[in-house]
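Quick log. Single chain, no ligands specified.
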Amino acid sequence: MEFAFIIGVFGVWLIIALAKGADWFGGSGKDYKESDRDFLNRVARENSERARKKLEEIRKSKRES
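-> predicted structure:
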């Protein structure tokens, strides 16, 4: 009985390890965690692009006036 329990515990551990390994080897991109630096760079690019578009709109509206 104890032997079956030990085999069961190791079997569950092995299944979990294989599932984690498959995710790791598969390189699933959905689990990518953005680093703080990447996040700040992305936000800075988005803000810069937003500001550039806003400036173009302002310049365009001044030319039309």
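Helices lie at 2-26, 36-64.
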